[in-house]
Amino acid sequence: MANRVEVLILQHPLERDQAKGSARLLHLSLARSRMLTGEVFDAQAWLPIGNTRYNILLYPDLPSDRGAGLPLPPAMVSDVLQDPSLLRLIVLDGTWRKSRKLLYLNPTLQQLPRLSLQDLPASKYRIRRAHRPDQLSTLEAVCAALAQLEGGEGPVRPLLDAFDGFVAQQRAFSAPTPRF
């Protein structure tokens, strides 16, 4: 899939070998993506010298985070959002608990402006448990963000359709075998 926004996926180590994880599929499908696995990330590894991209963290701005000691994220510069080719979307891959841990362990991430997704449909990712219908897989969340940043769902629709097929296939593998 041709995307103008660069996507950096920071994956929690326990997600790397998760057969039902969506980040690997996302990474393999996006032309401008990179994936790093770990808990603590050296900012120099993902913010190279001479970086000209405007970095945005795909993560909700939750009041509970500030109550837990995280700083208020800076406001997003709206002028930069007009040109998706100038953007780098940084995504945390893991359960909510693991992604919050990644945020706490990486102060550089805490200093980035955040992109919160609004008015999301229910997740179609029915092969892993979610506590709420709007808790999306990494792939679904990034597709929603790219649609928001790049002006529509059209370019990400083929990836979402392929993901629906992946979910259906996984569900078929786990369906009970009929007895005769």
Keywords:
5-stranded parallel sheet, 180 residues, alpha/beta
Please give the largest β-sheet: 5 strands, parallel
The helix fraction, in percent, is 25-40%
The N- to C-terminal Cα distance equals: 44 Å
Number of domains: 1
The tally of helices reads 7
| Overall pLDDT score | 80
Q: Catalogue the unreliable spans.
A: none
Shape: globular
Notes on the protein architecture:
The protein has 7 helices and 5 strands. It has a 5-stranded parallel β-sheet with strand order 2-1-4-3-5. Helix 3 (63-67) links the parallel strand 3 (54-58) and strand 4. It has helices at residues 23-29, 43-46, 63-67, 96-105, 107-110, 138-150, 157-174, and strands spanning 6-11, 33-37, 54-58, 87-93, 114-115. The protein is α/β, with parallel strands linked by helices and 180 residues long. The protein has one domain (6-174). It is globular, with a radius of gyration of 17 Å. The termini are far apart. The longest helix has 18 residues, at 157-174.
Quick recap:
This protein has helices at residues 23-29, 43-46, 63-67, 96-105, 107-110, 138-150, 157-174, and strands at residues 6-11, 33-37, 54-58, 87-93, 114-115. By secondary structure, it is of the alpha/beta class.
SSE blueprint:
Elements: E1 6-11, H1 23-29, E2 33-37, H2 43-46, E3 54-58, H3 63-67, E4 87-93, H4 96-105, H5 107-110, E5 114-115, H6 138-150, H7 157-174
Parallel strand pairs: 1-2, 1-4, 3-4, 3-5
